[in-house]
Amino acid sequence: MKWNSGFRQVHRWLSLAFTAAVIVNMIAMLQEKSTVWVGLLALLPLGLLMPTGLYLFLLPYAAMWRRR
Hints:
Elements: H1 2-30, H2 36-40, H3 43-67
Transmembrane segments: 12-30, 36-58
Keywords: Membrane, Transmembrane, Transmembrane helix
């Protein structure tokens, strides 16, 4: 059960980092100072959000399969 709570915590913090990166990207675009690294800033947390989100999405199905 510790793995599940650990993944949830990591997923929450990654979502905060992704939101902050999107806000920074929007501010940079509004100021017309957008560079490539600012545009790619949100991809790192987004790439890490995908596996943790898929894991959390599949947890109920895995529990259902184990019950059978």
